[in-house]
Specification:
Elements: H1 14-19, E1 21-24, E2 28-33, H2 50-58, E3 64-65, E4 74-80, H3 83-94, E5 98-107, E6 114-122, E7 132-135, E8 142-154, E9 157-164, H4 171-178, H5 194-202, H6 209-212, E10 219-226, E11 232-234, H7 239-247, H8 253-265
Parallel strand pairs: 4-10
Antiparallel strand pairs: 1-2, 2-4, 3-4, 5-9, 5-10, 6-7, 6-8, 8-9, 10-11
Length: 274
């Protein structure tokens, strides 16, 4: 089975779309993508994807997706209105002058900082065509490097900051599973792949909530920063994250704000100290 979800996501409402705008100028449109929306255009019309909705909103035939997120990952997505701006940000990501940082909720208590460096390749044992796994170095394998920094552990979960040195497909999700701390809400790289297959066929089932903790993977693109120019775009913590942190982890509003601020202050790409 491929990654296309058979059940259609809701159509984007123009008023909601405008609320997602974090920044806009003559070159850029920066959005806070919700965790139910795909980035790339789909067969269900322009208002069924982030790029399609952006083209309608801007009345442009082409926009350039300088950064992307998986469908169920929320957070900062940067769209360029012309090739020059797209090239600047895409090169920045390639040459590591543009950094992306994530917030995640992991299953279990991650007690130490983790620096994970592995090779990723297709999972030959999975029924899901696009599923990847940690594998040996080979001609087809791709190197991936992820940093996990636990902010707080409580109630059997860890709220953490995540940084990446590479941008491989599903990288954080695979590495979280590799260190035995899958993302809360993870259907594909979690406790049972069959949940993902069933979800693709029939949609969400409330009976999964106790097992998964959230309806989607608990991964949020917190910020995108140009370290050369100093530009930084950040997306506030989504409502479902806050609900989980308060209800399951028993964190107060002030505690949540404190740990998000701590995550924003971290610079742990070159070396992770325990």
């Amino acid at each position: 089975m491929n990654e296309s979800i058979s059940l259609d996501a809701p159509i984007v409402d123009i008023e909601d779309f405008q609320k997602w705008i974090l920044y806009e100028d003559d070159s850029l449109l920066v959005l806070n993508k919700p965790g139910w929306l795909v980035c790339h255009p789909s067969k269900n019309g322009p208002w069924s994807s982030l790029v399609g909705a952006a083209k309608e909103y801007l009345q442009l035939e082409t926009v350039h997706l300088a950064s992307r997120l998986d469908r169920e990952t929320s957070g900062v997505v940067l769209l360029a209105k012309h090739k020059k701006a797209a090239s600047h940000w895409q090169k920045g990501i390639e040459f590591k002058t543009v950094r992306r940082n994530y917030l995640a909720i992991l299953d279990g208590h991650l007690t130490d900082n983790r620096h994970v460096s592995t090779y990723l390749g297709k999972d030959p044992y999975s029924e899901v065509y696009v599923k990847q796994r940690v594998t040996e170095n080979s001609r087809k394998a791709k190197y991936a490097e992820t940093f996990f920094y636990p902010l707080v552990r409580r109630g059997g979960y860890t709220f953490c900051s995540v940084g990446t040195q590479t941008g491989r497909k599903h990288q954080i999700r695979i590495h979280a599973q590799w260190i035995n701390h899958s993302l809360v809400g993870e259907k594909l790289y979690g406790k049972n792949e069959q949940i993902y297959l069933d979800f693709c066929q029939s949609g969400w089932k409330e009976e999964w909530l106790d097992l998964l903790g959230m309806c989607r993977q608990a991964l949020h693109g917190r910020y995108l920063k140009d370290t050369d120019k100093g530009d930084c775009f950040s997306a506030p913590l989504p409502e479902d994250f806050e609900t989980f942190l308060r209800s399951r982890m028993k964190l107060s509003f002030k505690e949540i704000q404190k740990y998000v601020s701590l995550a924003d202050s971290l610079t742990f790409y070159d070396k992770v100290e325990n």
